[in-house]
Write a structure and sequence with these properties.
CATH superfamily of the largest domain in chain B: Aldehyde oxidase/xanthine dehydrogenase, molybdopterin binding domain
Number of helices of chain B: 20
Shape of chain B: globular
Helix content of chain B: 25-40%
Largest sheet of chain B: 7 strands, mixed
CATH class of the largest domain in chain A: Alpha Beta
Number of helices of chain A: 5
Strand content of chain A: 5-15%
CATH topology of the largest domain in chain A: Ubiquitin-like (UB roll)
Order of helices and strands of chain A: EEHEEEHHHH
Largest interface: A-B, 59 and 58 residues
Radius of gyration of chain B: 28 Å
Number of strands of chain A: 5
Number of domains of chain A: 2
Oligomer: heterotrimer
Structural class of chain A: alpha+beta
Radius of gyration of chain A: 15 Å
Number of domains of chain B: 3
CATH superfamily of the largest domain in chain A: Beta-grasp domain
CATH architecture of the largest domain in chain B: 2-Layer Sandwich
């Protein structure tokens, strides 16, 4: 069994893993990082989105062995000195969630979106979130939340987790 | 400050935005085992033999069972709605024993140490099937000599249910206009984002069940009756639940089997489905063929309506399968006045996944049919679609109004909602643009769709449910517990899974008790805590459960008043209660807060005679009537006449849901509802191939729209309070879904009228739109 | 769903990767970005015994200028390709089409080489490489091999790669000045596969069309060049009518199949409509 060394939310883990173990199952079942859920089998829903070296990936479509030597950030590692990330704040303020199941992935994808494009138009936000499905909100308040976070982040010093 | 009516940000978000959630699949218990189900690859087959021996030898496998192995203890899945005395109700074993009747039906299960081992071992189970003919088409299924889904029943018909009022023959006799149409409500997959999951933990002779369910209370009763675990030994918890939309208003075989396995093996057992498994085996929605006849006078006034439905039950009758189409029975006449109405529904068995509740459940189908017919009537008479509706709808000064179905609509103002919608939409401007595009033979044509809907929700008066032979009541329960420190626990039998009860209920309690919002904690979804209830579906939570909470709060205040009078040495009738404080009339400085009284009743040092310590109460509310939200939705769609592609250009929704507790939550409910209704019109369909295998097993084939595929909505409200409950509220959970589907299809057909198009079957895929155009032009 | 078991090899050089493939034989699968393969593994539609992960073969990610062409390494991610200045300068059609592939998270992992080797007729990039006359470079224990795009895509999910052959990348000839390009993708939702896609380039000089490339996505078991359309436009003045007339030939020589999202007949119709539109956009008129 291959041995991997992964940094997840600022903590380094070393584990032997079966090659077929999905990153999301490694996070959930081995590390107890259950904040990242699974919603599909086919890379469509994006509920399992995490950041790998700062870029969004769908953790159900990456093997745990492929995360070896990489740095993973999940929804559980977003707080900065205990404070919510502006994107988390914005989803709350703008009612960008209902059941909340897509929310971790949606927030991670939104952070990635702003990293690429700090001042997106509504259309760019919608396109940037194409890989994340939500069944509750109709997306309108998610778009509003991302816009609001973009505004907030451009007016603050906050950048990224590390 | 009043909380009710305030756009309070949601309390439940704190855990949901940080990943600090408790989805059922998150639960890990010592010694936990995992179950996986082997499912039928055939739509219909006899099970000749199931050989589980090789699977048992696989590493990590603890047990393997076929349906036959569990036949003595697995019981049958319940149907709680026997809609007619002669309804055909087949046995429904959780794991098929002798015959499979839809692809995806469980035939065996593996219990293993982890989910990977369980999945592996499924491949080692050898099942010998003898294929039988699939039954896929409802009309063919009813024909003489048709292949049967349940051969022992001798028919594929489950029931025929009839309702009629008024003289329909007279209505059609000499009618100036008769519109006759057939519409198809395609089969949908509810697609909640959280896949189903269940964990069962035995503890002595007790059993705790966590399930991703909308209905912990109903599930407890049903699991007790199916498995024989005494109800008092069974605790059901719906922890964080990731959406339901009706799909988790069910008692699933997997829930029953997981419980039985946990009991049998004495270990906690977990089952979590994959999406592709779920698309096949979460109950589906809709799937009706609607044959409609509408008679009207030359001025567009409706004389009568005849509705004849075929409703696909799928292979079995699940919890409320047969009743779903009947929830629409009273809604075809909608907001329109007519003298005669007849409704017939035949439930048909096919070898497909059973259907059951999906957001709107029966009402979207009805609303679609009547709103499409109204547009056809307008076209027939060359009237504006708004005008033809105006000539028929119930006017605001005619409420309360008894409809041809015998329902009494308590309140409404269709004129006001429509007026507001027309203004927001800039109706005249868009009609002008439409004319211009037609004139120019623009490749992209513009269509305008109207939907002036109402619906019946807030399920439901228990007496009405009884008269429809439904197996339970429709009341809801709530309790209020004031704690020694003056803080408040609110218990509700409603079981939220995204609706925001923890916020809205706290707002209601905060106002009723005069305590700060932050001092209220709302508890739900655990039968050991919120011990009584009938759960969440049918837009019932606020209009039934919220009202129960008001009742419980009133009782607490009444008791507190007695204690306050005693402690303040005043007459109770001399006390005023404002902002949580009792004070003696005319002596405002002489008073006590209800939170202080909570402490005093806890200490119980000085209570009036006959008053028990502690300050708490409970109440149930059984509504006297349904709730009738309404609204006017307008959709502008651009249709590319070369490709058939439809793009929604503008969508305006003006809803009247009476008084509003939290406008933020209401807006969210409308947005989400619109998305699902629009998606039925444009994108979604569960498709079975000729062998009866589901082709849309993944989200790559079953198209759930992303942010890019939906427009920005313009939403607004008018406010005509409900008169049937003290909050004046109406349900909002399903309104958007019910209203939007016909608005979109009406817009598409409107765009294509000049090309001779009078209908496009849903979902209106680019190819279907393009074909409708070709056929229209060819005629 | 959960993948079946497999052995896992993680070479760090092209040489190691080729050896790994050679030793593992026909039961091996190459794992590039995994965005098509992982779903197949999870649904157990693919059950390889060995997975050869190219993630750590850094040299396969290179995009470099090779004089008269640009070489894009097989493991260059979609994200990398979209941003790459060489690609944007010399093969903007690839950048534009790649931006329509799936979604940002998938594009962070998914690779050009993986998309081409997967040879899905509904994939967007095979038609693009075909339109640009790309040359695919493969390597086996027997040495390197060049395969023109026209010979590479053989059938549904079948490329000309031998089981023990590794795709190193694709060479895209620089096309010089005067070209306009466009990829027109038609799908029902943002996440859905293309029902039809049209990749095209038009070179004009003095108002007339001097050269033209049109390739179609999902119009058969492999991407196809619409040669009749290309021929019909040579020497013509670039007008909407000229494009429409030429596009009438778009479905000739194609063999589309019907599926959930469109019948063969509808695809043929779409090919004609979308080809005219793509050419018009490419020509900037």
């Amino acid at each position: 069994m291959p041995r991997i060394k992964v940094e997840v939310d600022g903590v380094t883990y070393e584990d032997d893993v079966e090659p077929r173990l999905l990153l999301v199952h490694y996070l959930r079942d081995r590390l107890g990082k259950v904040g990242t859920p699974v919603g599909c089998d086919t890379t469509n829903c994006g509920a399992c989105t995490v950041l790998m070296d700062g870029m969004s990936v769908k953790s159900c479509s990456v093997l745990a062995v492929q995360a070896d030597t990489h740095d993973i950030t999940t929804i559980e590692g977003l707080r900065i000195n205990g404070a919510l990330h502006p994107m988390q704040e914005a989803f709350h303020s703008e009612h960008g969630l209902q059941c909340g199941y897509c929310t971790p992935g949606m927030i991670m994808a939104s952070i990635d979106l702003l990293r690429e494009n700090p001042d997106p138009s509504d259309e760019e936000i919608r396109e940037g979130l194409e890989g994340n499905l939500c069944r509750c909100t109709g997306y309108q308040n998610i778009v509003r939340a991302v816009r609001s976070a973009a505004h907030e982040m451009s007016h603050s010093e906050v950048t990224s987790h590390d | 400050m009043t909380e009710v009516g305030t756009a309070r940000k949601r309390s439940e978000d704190a855990r949901l935005i940080t990943g600090n959630t408790q989805w059922t699949d998150n639960i890990q218990l010592p010694g936990m085992l995992y179950v996986a189900f082997l499912r039928s690859p055939y739509a219909h087959a006899r099970i000749v033999n199931v050989d589980t021996s090789a699977a048992l030898d696989r590493p990590g496998v603890v047990a393997v069972f076929s349906g036959a192995d569990l036949a003595g203890e697995q019981g049958g899945l319940p149907c709680a709605w026997v809609v007619t005395p002669d309804m055909v109700l087949p046995d429904h074993p959780p794991i098929a024993v002798t015959e499979v009747r839809y692809s995806g039906e469980p035939v065996a299960c593996v219990v293993a140490r982890d989910r990977y081992a369980a999945a592996d071992a499924l491949e080692a189970i050898d099942v010998d099937y003898e294929p039988l003919p699939p039954v896929l088409d409802m009309q063919a299924a009813l024909a003489e000599g048709a292949d049967l889904v349940h051969s022992d029943k001798g028919t594929n018909k489950s029931y025929t249910w009839v309702f009629a009022n008024g003289d329909l023959d007279a209505a059609f006799l000499d009618a100036a206009v008769v519109i006759e149409r057939e519409y198809v409500q395609q089969r949908l997959i509810p697609s909640a984002m959280e896949p189903r999951s269940v964990v069962c933990q035995p503890f002595g002779d007790q059993m705790t069940v966590w399930s991703s369910t909308q209905i912990p209370h109903i599930l407890r009763v049903m699991l007790a009756s199916v498995t024989g675990v005494p109800e008092q030994n069974l605790r059901v918890i719906a922890p964080d639940v990731g959406g339901g939309f009706g799909s988790k208003l069910q008692v699933y075989g997997e829930e029953v089997i997981t419980l039985i396995l946990a009991r049998k093996l004495g270990k906690p057992v977990k089952w979590t489905e994959s999406r592709s498994e779920g698309n096949q085996t979460v109950h589906h929605g809709r799937d009706q063929i609607q044959r409609l006849r509408l008679a009207a006078d030359a001025d567009g006034r409706i004389r009568g309506l005849n509705v004849d439905l075929l409703a696909d039950m799928g292979a079995y009758l699940m919890l409320v399968t047969p009743g779903i189409p009947l929830l629409g029975a009273f809604m075809f006449p909608a907001i329109y006045k007519m003298d005669a109405y007849s409704f017939t529904c035949t439930g048909v068995f096919t070898t497909k996944m059973p259907t059951d509740a999906y957001r709107g459940a029966g009402r979207p189908e009805a609303t679609f049919a009547i709103e499409r017919l109204m547009d056809e009537l307008a076209h027939e008479l060359d009237l504006d679609p708004i005008e033809v509706r105006r000539r028929n709808w119930i006017k605001h000064d005619e409420f309360p109004y008894e409809t041809v179905c015998g329902l009494t609509y308590d309140s409404g103002n269709y004129e006001a909602a429509t007026e507001k919608a027309l203004q927001l939409f800039e109706y005249d401007k868009l009609r002008a643009e439409q004319a211009d595009r037609r004139e120019r033979h623009d490749t992209v044509q513009l269509g305008i769709g109207v939907s002036t809907f109402t619906e019946m929700c807030g399920l439901a008066p228990s007496r009405v449910l009884g008269s429809l032979f439904y197996g339970a009541g429709g009341w809801e329960h709530s309790a209020v517990r004031m704690l020694p420190t003056g803080k408040v626990e609110v218990l509700t039998g409603s079981s939220a899974h995204g609706q925001g009860h923890e916020t809205a209920w706290a707002q209601i309690a905060s106002d009723a008790l005069g305590v700060p919002f932050e001092d209220v904690r709302v508890l739900h979804g655990d039968t050991a805590i919120s011990h009584k209830g009938l759960d969440t579906y049918g837009s019932r939570s606020l209009v039934v459960g919220g009202v129960a909470l008001v009742g419980a709060c009133v009782k607490v205040v009444d008791k507190a008043r007695v204690v306050a009078a005693h402690l303040l040495e005043a007459d109770a009738s001399d006390l005023t209660f404002e902002n949580g404080r009792f004070s003696v009339r005319g002596v405002p400085e002489q008073g006590m807060s209800i939170q202080e009284i909570a402490g005093a009743t806890f200490a119980a040092h000085n209570l009036p005679d006959g008053i028990e310590p502690s300050l708490d109460s409970e109440a149930t509310f059984d509504p006297e009537n349904f709730s009738f939200p309404h609204g006017t939705h307008l959709c502008a769609a651009e249709v590319d006449t070369e490709t058939g592609f439809v793009k929604i250009r503008k969508y305006v929704a003006v809803d009247d849901i009476g008084k509003v507790v939290n406008p933020l939550i209401v807006e969210g409910q409308v947005h989400g509802g619109l998305a699902q209704g629009i998606s039925q019109a444009l994108y979604e369909e569960a498709v079975y191939d000729v062998d009866g295998n589901l082709q849309t097993t993944t989200l790559a084939d079953y198209l759930v729209p992303s942010a890019s595929d939906l427009p920005t909505f313009t939403t607004d409200r008018t406010e005509t309070p409900a008169t049937t409950n003290p909050l004046g509220v109406k349900g909002v959970g399903e309104a958007g879904t019910i209203a939007s589907t016909p608005a979109v299809v009406n817009a598409i057909v409107d765009a294509l009228r000049p090309f001779g198009v009078s209908d496009v079957r849903m979902p209106c895929t680019p190819e279907r739109v393009w074909r409708a155009l070709q056929e229209g032009v060819a005629q | 769903m959960i993948p079946g078991s497999f052995d896992y090899l993680r070479p760090t050089t092209i040489g190691e990767a080729v050896s790994a493939l050679a030793e593992s034989g026909e039961d091996a699968k190459v794992l590039a970005g995994g965005q098509s393969l992982m779903p197949l593994l999870r649904l157990r539609l693919a059950l390889p015994e060995v997975l050869v992960d190219l993630d750590h073969v850094a040299e396969l990610r290179e995009i470099r200028d090779t004089g008269d062409s640009v070489f894009i390494g097989a493991m260059a991610t979609h994200h990398q390709v979209i941003k790459d200045p060489l690609v944007r300068a010399h093969a903007p059609l690839i950048a534009q089409a790649t931006a329509t592939v799936a979604d940002p998270a998938v594009r962070h992992r998914g690779t050009l080489g993986g998309s081409l080797a997967h040879a899905d007729p509904a994939g967007d990039l095979p038609a693009v490489i075909l339109a640009l006359d790309g040359v695919l470079i493969a390597q086996s224990a027997h040495g390197p091999r060049e395969i023109p795009a026209a010979d590479f895509f053989e059938d549904y999910l079948t490329s000309a790669l031998e089981p023990a052959e590794l795709l190193l990348g694709v060479r895209i000839p620089k096309l010089g000045t005067g070209w306009g390009f466009h990829y027109e993708k038609f799908h029902r939702t943002a996440q859905a596969w293309a029902i039809v896609g049209v990749a095209c380039g038009v070179r004009r000089a003095n108002g007339a069309i001097e050269e033209c490339r049109v390739a179609l996505t999902n119009m058969g078991p492999a991407p196809v060049r619409a040669h009749e359309v290309e021929r019909a436009l040579l020497g013509r003045v670039a007008t909407q009518n000229a494009f429409k007339a030429a596009a009438a030939h778009a479905a000739e020589g194609t063999a589309p199949t019907g599926d959930l999202h469109g019948s063969a007949e509808y695809r043929e119709h779409l090919a004609r409509v979308l080809t005219a539109r793509a050419l018009t956009t490419a020509a900037g008129i």
